[in-house]
Amino acid sequence: MAPTLVSSPPTLRITPEPLTPQSFAPFGTVITTPFPRDLLGAPNNLPALKLPHRVPATPVYANQGSAVKISPIAPLANGYENACPSGKAAQARLSMFACFPRKLRREKQTGHRQSAVNDILNGKVHSEGGEQDGEGAEEEPDFDGPVFDVRILERHPYTTQTFIPLDLSSQKRVLRDRVPDKKSHDWKGYGEGDVGITLDGTAEQDEEQEEPIYLVIVAPTLKGQSAAATSATTSKDTAVSSSDPTTMSTIGTLSDPVNEGTVDSNRVLIRDPPDLENLRAFIARGGQAVTYGPGTWHAPMVVLGPRRVDFVVVQYVNGVEDEDCQEAAFKDGIVVDLKSLSEEEDEFWDDLKKLSKL
Q: 7, 64, 180, 315 — which has fewest CB within 10 A?
């Protein structure tokens, strides 16, 4: 179980921002294709090809001129050697994480968009949003908005870690096959779409479905600082495997000698803890992979949407638990506000902009 910070976290409401190479640069690397979607063949003049954003290496021809290669596209760092306390060597590891949609909490929020639309329809607001007729603004109604509670962060102190999503489109909606009930062949509830008959006589239908997204939640590191935390392990289970414990994330115990060895009394220090005051959240879609820099505090992967997302994960590991992954849990107080991701609200806001110009 992750050690829990003794001090209460700040009360923060974070609005997620789009994941871009520039915005994420303090925490790692965003991997996305720099080539336009309509580039259907290898360009004749590669040096003259204009790319929408900078790439870490010069593009070169590959595969007898039928491909363009950019290498490296992101760092793959192994910082274990001469740095980790155990001295154990690390090996490259490719894993798969099947990440299922997270359950979101609903909380009362002010319905400012709906209220603004109503005010415009009632002639109470100027096109710039000011009030008319000297009337005060009506009290805004409340609605249940989705939020994600951030309660734990982790980091990998000696390695980069890259998450590469599989079977995830960069488009908000895609057409996917739907199969009816085999006994009744009832299409009710399967939506509109073209029905086709396959060679074995079964029917299939394409339906437009919403694609999942994933949240990348990160925090800066308070380098050189320490934070007290409580651990579920007893002091007898806590061992320092290095003559230089300051390199460890969790060290020793700070428990009351009277209660030493009890679960409730066990205290540890987290070296270089996360800076929760400056935690940030990013919205990532298909077509984007993310690489966390070594030691970057981040939340375990958060998938939002109708289905799971499978990720190929690339990193180094040496099999020593506290050297491969370090965690810090904390109490409630930090939430990611997700109401801006609601399509209905986006449509409301578009309607508001149109109405304000009438």
A: 64
Same domain, 28 and 149: yes
Q: The whole model's pTM is what?
A: 0.74
Is the Cα torsion angle 70, 73, 78, 83 positive or negative in sign? positive
Cβ atoms < 10 Å from Cβ of 315? 24
- 63 and 79 belong to one structural domain: no
Short-list 100, 156, 97, 30, CA closest to 312: 97
Closest CA to 119 of 133, 134, 131: 131
119 has a pLDDT exceeding 60: no
Rounded Cα distance, 219 and 223, in Å: 12
Same domain membership, residue 64 and residue 206: no
For 283-333, give the DSSP string. Answer: EE-TTEEEEEPTT-EEPSPEEESSS-EEEEEEEEE-S-HHHH-EEEEEEEE
Mean of the pLDDT values across residues 216-220? 98
Task: Please give the single-letter amino acid code of residue 177.
Answer: D
Residues in Cβ contact with 189 at an 8 Å cutoff, skipping those fewer than 6 apart: none
Residue 285, token pair as written in the block? 């879609």
Model confidence at 341, in pLDDT bands (50, 70, 90)? confident
- Do 217 and 315 belong together in one domain? yes
Asked, for residue 132, whether it belongs to a domain, the answer is yes
Longest dimension (CA), the chain: 77
Structural domain harbouring 218? 4-32+75-177+202-225+272-356
CA dist., res. 308 & res. 272, Å (int): 33
Q: Which helix (H) or strand (E) element contains residue 270?
A: strand 267-271
Among all chains, which residue has been given the structure tokens 């060679």? 199
DSSP β-ladder status, 142-155 and 161-166: unpaired
pLDDT in tens, 222-248: 999 999 999 875 444 444 333 343 333
Note the pLDDT tens digit of each residue in 278-289: 999 999 999 999
d(CA 73, CA 162) in angstroms, rounded, equals 12
User: How many helices and strands, by DSSP H and E, does the chain display?
Assistant: 4, 23
